[in-house]
Amino acid sequence: MANIAPQQIVCAMESYRQGIQALVAQSRPTLFVTLAFNRQTSLDAARAKLEEFQCRMDRAVAGRNWDERPDRCTTYIAVAEHVETNLHIHSAFVVPLERVGKFNAAALVQWPKLVESGSIVVELVNDPMGLGRYMAKEITPATGDRLLLPRTR
Fold first, then answer.
1. Cβ atoms of 22 and 131 closer than 8 Å
2. Structural domains in the chain plus CATH codes
3. Which residue in 50, 60, 64 sits closest to 92, CA to CA?
4. What are 62-118's pLDDT values in tens digits?
5. Fewer beta carbons within 10 Å, N or C terminal of the chain?
6. Distance of alpha carbon 77 from alpha carbon 93, whole angstroms
């Protein structure tokens, strides 16, 4: 078994978090969306709700035939937090600027339809690096399954 000094582990964790921070910043997110369930739920169920939420947002912002208009669709990078106690998702959504209003209006209606007990907060992103730092604050290589990315369409 290898001897790994504690500071090496801390450096590896910080490097991992910095990678997620850079990923978020490089995506040039428009909106910071926090999705809360306010009830017990599994990570797999939360991931499925996030994917359905994105589909609903794409329909709202891109209109009919949204799946044929990838230039009008959303994308995101998300992190699930407090999986064992009060699971919620912090997500950095990339939404065309001219469609932010439509997204916001639809999000406030659609999330409670998907998760009756759910709540949502949508905010404009001013500092992508700061957002990335905030989103990566609790994730580690051991909890990497909590990094949620959209499926390729």
1. no
2. 28-148 (3.30.70.1910)
3. 50
4. 887 777 777 778 999 999 999 999 999 999 999 989 999 999 999 999 999 999 999
5. N
6. 7
